Amino acid sequence: MIEGLQPYPEYQESGQKWLGRVPVHWDILPNRALFEEVKDRNHPNEEMLSVTITRGIIRQKALLTDTSKKDSSNVNKSAYKLVQPGDIAYNKMRAWQGAVGVSSYRGIISPAYVVMRPRKDCTSWYYHHLFRTPSFAKEAERWSYGITSDMWSLRPEHFKVIYSVEPPPDEQAAIVRFLDHANRKMDGFIRAKRKLIGLLNEQKQAIIHRAVTRGVDHPQITQISADQNQKNLCPSAKSVDKNLKPSGIPWLGDIPKHWEIWRISRFGKVGNGSTPSRSNMGYWSNGSYPWLNSSHVNRGLIDSADQFVTATALRECHLPKVQPGSVLIAITGQGKTRGMSSVLDIEATINQHIAYISLRLPVVSVKFLNLSLAAAYTTLRALSDDSGSTKGALTCEDIKRFKIAVPPVSEQEEIVRTVELETAALTAAITRAEREIALMQEYRTRLTVDVVTGKLDVRAAAAKLPEITADPMEGLEDGLLEESETEEDE
Predict the structure, then answer these.
(1) pLDDT digits over 409-463, tens only?
(2) Which listed site, 86, 215, 366, 394, has its alpha carbon 20 to 30 Å from 138?
(3) How many contiguous H segments (helices) and E segments (strands) does the chain have?
């Protein structure tokens, strides 16, 4: 589909770094010439919409259905702004992160957001693609104001002075048609890879769950005596039922008779952290102590940080110094992150969206504890939904009370080794598929930038494509909301 695409015959300098050179017949205009701000209020009964980083404008009910996020809008919605199909809306505080898009729906959005309506007969979806490029996000960042990044705001008056391009209407339509088809093909590839990852994770989860609830297989053993159990031998998964006992814990089921059940608080210290005020530069400027947010628990082993706080922040914000050999678990978050855990390999502190478990007694190895939490992921998710939180969250008390099966330490080490061996191929396949998704997403971004800024001419290619009558957002990659969209204080 993209083979044979060539640049336009002739270009002009746009005078705008974020646009670069553009086709000579395209206009370069300030956004105030293309859009007018709309402040249509007093429509409290209209449907609530959300402006997201990952998917642009979506129905809020879709956001609430896909994640644990709760409706945090005001009861009185008279000040909320009406959005019509074709309007462009953006989150002032997150435009520089990509929270902008065209609406397919009529509805209302937060009064803190900005609604822009096209002045001319243009294709709004073209500007949806243009304004969601990293190039525009960087330009939005340049025009945003605030003390720190989490307070940057792209005010309407500054959006209006940003220069954009205006291709002829027929070219705008051709670009949108081309990108719609390209995105559908790429999203089909990504969905297939995500389905594969889901299946591989199910296999991995089954292996882990079996190991931490029954032990690992020893094919040469078919019967385990009570005397052998006392010698800390691992019962075979094929052993008779008399070698098992009810755990009394639904997610564990029957466990080997010589295993014990321990509450986490018996062997571990549990706590969580906080986010120092971003407006206080004394907490962040030239910081050297690693500070972690919940995105790190997806890594399995945490051996580095990308944000750092100062000694003043550690002291005044009562941040815990979490030692290496602890387990971190995400206690809030959208998508898949809540309930995930990782082993900490460095000394660090954490935010309020993570809990730490530091071992106080040598009855559980850190790797076995992490495996047990991984096996209990579904249970932890259900527990967080039942905890009464308005956002869907685990609490430190939930984790303290949580119970796991505890084999002898030598057996734990054997279980960990066996699981690592049996899941190595699955882990490699998951990593490979995730890398392929990342490469496709990078390619999508590069292709979109090249097309919407006129670096590639898609007019002939688009002319050969069938018309799409469906909503351009329909069938596109849904994905999962980024955690950064939900951790509002970070």
Answers:
(1) 999 999 999 999 999 999 999 999 999 999 999 999 999 999 999 999 999 999 9
(2) 86
(3) 14, 24
What residues contact residue 65 under an 8 Å CB cut-off, 6+ apart?
Answer: none
**The pLDDT of residue 326:** 97
Domain ranges of the chain: 11-191+435-485, 260-406
* Range with the poorest average pLDDT among 69-83, 298-312, 362-376, 422-436: 69-83
Residue partners of 390: CB distance under 8 A and separation at least 6? 70
CA distance 445 to 32: 26
260-406 shares the fold of 11-191+435-485? yes
Coil vs helix vs strand at 252? coil
Candidates 211, 134, 143; CA nearest to 372 is 211
Nearest one of 51, 132, 57 to 449, comparing CA atoms = 132
Instruction: Look at residues 222, 268, 256, 200 and name the one whose alpha carbon lies nearest to residue 414.
Output: 256
Q: Which of 129, 114, 222, 107 is nearest to 182 (CA)?
A: 129
Cβ neighbours around 400 below 10 Å, total? 17
Name which of 28, 22, 27 is nearest 8 in CA terms. 22
Using DSSP, state whether 22 is helix, strand or coil. strand
How far apart CA 189 and CA 441 sit, in angstroms, is 10
Q: Pull the structure tokens for residue 347.
A: 């000394």
CATH topology of domain 260-406: Adenine-n6-DNA-methyltransferase TaqI; Chain A, domain 2 (3.90.220)
Tell whether the model's pLDDT for residue 287 goes beyond 60. yes
CATH number at 11-191+435-485: 3.90.220.20
**3-state class of 465 per DSSP?**
coil
Tokens 């102590």 -> residue: 289
Give the pLDDT confidence score for residue 226 in this predicted structure.
36
pLDDT tens readout for residues 181-230: 999 999 999 999 999 999 999 999 999 999 999 998 644 333 333 344 44
